[in-house]
Please model this.
Amino acid sequence: MAADGKLEDSLVSDEGKYGGVRNDQRTSKGMLLGIGQDETVARIEDRIATWSLIPKDNGEAMQILRYEHGQKYLPHHDFFGNGGQDFLNGERVATVLMYLSDVEKGGETVFPLSEAMYVQPKDDGSWSDCAKRGYAVKPKKGDAILFFSLQPDASLDTSSLHGSCPVISGVKWSATKWIHEEDDLQAICATGVAVQLFGEFHHSKLWFLYKHPKESNLARFC
Ligand SMILES: O=C(O)CCC(=O)C(=O)O
Model:
């Protein structure tokens, strides 16, 4: 991959401050892409905004990650837990993980607190032991997952705990997009215009979306 020479040790966040520190919890290497840096990145950001129903301005710069043999990201939350006040645009609402490669064995994204793990069959020999400890997603080039770190009432959703299992064979390439609430979200929601029922997903909870008057094709959580 073209990114190979530009990768640096991945960092973990330091109590909600921008930047981060090296930590054995996360041993991948990675690099940041600029927001809208070229047509491809801009197109992906547009698609993420359409899929998540959260405006693309709420997104952090996309991170490209490479996990080699044994490299991992231990289970963690993407929210900061302090409202993200030291950070741009409030707390992290949602995460999109995009898989840029297949992985021969291991490297699954695992959600250890997801109740869905109890109904996910994993007895075909293709899953790592780590993946068996939660609901897991096998990296498949071109696939992406979207999950939420906050509840509809903006409280922290601790069941969003997730991590990347160690790669056992092959190399995992992925891209992460972290998406924030806006700092003016409460004010926008307080106007209460046109709240609509969106549907049922993520732990079967109902999510209400607010249609922004100036962005007819986008919606926000209230
Ligand atoms: O690469 C993965 O499967 C997980 C990445 C992750 O947890 C993150 O970037 O927050």
